[in-house]
Write a structure and sequence with these properties.
CATH architecture of the largest domain: Sandwich
Number of strands: 26
Number of domains: 2
Largest sheet: 8 strands, mixed
Structural class: mainly beta
Strand content: over 45%
CATH superfamily of the largest domain: Jelly Rolls
Number of helices: 2
Helix content: under 10%
């Protein structure tokens, strides 16, 4: 098992390596994303509410995303996702995640990346429902999931280990000027000492009441904000602002100039999925 200590996500907090401009150009294209109605999966052992995938044909991503709930004592059956990785971010509860011959226990705020093709199972081991985001790349289809009697017929052997990302809230540092702290959780480009088999990056942010991220754009990469707790507003110059409450998301297309603000009365917690993965030189800041 690999365990990664979060790195400070410098996109907002540092200007070195980022270009600046005086006037942001008017753009449009922030797409609000509301989860689909939950459906039972794995013979009713869990429910799945799709966020990105077949539910959102207007959003061109190379991953799928959904919200999974598993009641205490239940588990997904052993299965493999062929030629596909799965990232699990625990929103609530506790998970016991089996990955080939290794089992890890994760709780709220932790992330586990399961390499492609591993024999996996996720169990809810706490006293409350296990709730997590699942991100599958390439996007999930029924054809890639192998379980039951088909596992033996597949005749695949793997011995990969999960990548576990530490809780970013240990030792958070605030940017007092903007009221925002942002940390990289996983990035295949910046964290190149460990082979990370995904093409996107994931960051975690906390915004104090009134905390904001000024106008910026990300060259060649989309950004998807998922609100864990609280509410944000994503605005574009000369355009309508989109409110994004907890449990929903907003998709920001590549190169779009936008600003983000906490509009809740308490601290807002969000995830940011940037695809392809974020690097400092991709960010354009506007004064």
């Amino acid at each position: 098992m690999y365990r990664i200590v979060p790195l400070l996500f410098a996109c907002i907090l540092l200007s070195a390596g980022c270009l600046t401009a005086n006037e942001p150009q008017a753009e449009a294209g922030v797409v609000p994303v509301t989860p689909a109605d939950p459906v039972p999966i794995f013979d009713g052992r869990a429910t799945y509410a799709g966020l990105i995938g077949d539910e959102t044909p207007q959003i061109p991503t190379n991953y799928s995303m959904g919200y999974v709930v598993i009641a205490p004592g239940n588990a997904t059956p052993p299965h493999r996702l062929i030629r596909t990785t799965e990232l699990v971010y625990v929103i609530a509860g506790a998970a016991e995640i089996r990955c080939d011959n290794e089992t890890v226990t994760t709780r709220e705020g932790e992330t586990v990346l399961l390499p492609e093709g591993v024999l996996q199972s996720i169990a809810s081991v706490g006293d409350t429902d296990l709730c997590y985001l699942t991100v599958v790349q390439p996007p999930f289809t029924a054809a890639i999931e192998i379980s039951g009697d088909d596992l033996a017929a597949l005749n695949v052997t793997t011995d990969d280990v999960p990548i576990v990302v530490a809780d970013p809230r240990d030792g958070i540092e605030w940017d007092l000027e903007s009221g925002v702290a942002v940390y990289t959780l996983i990035n295949p480009v910046l964290m190149n000492k460990t082979e990370i088999p995904i093409g996107y990056s994931l960051a975690y942010a906390e915004l104090l009441p009134g905390g904001h991220l000024g106008y910026d754009g990300i060259r060649g990469s989309s950004d998807l904000f998922y609100v864990i707790e609280g509410e944000i507003e994503v605005a574009v110059p000369d355009g309508e602002a989109v409110r994004v409450p907890a449990g929903t998301a907003a998709y920001v297309r590549p190169d779009l100039v936008k600003a983000t603000r906490n509009v809740a009365e308490s601290t807002t917690k969000i995830l940011s999925f940037i695809d392809p993965a974020w690097t400092p030189e991709k960010t354009v800041l506007f004064e």
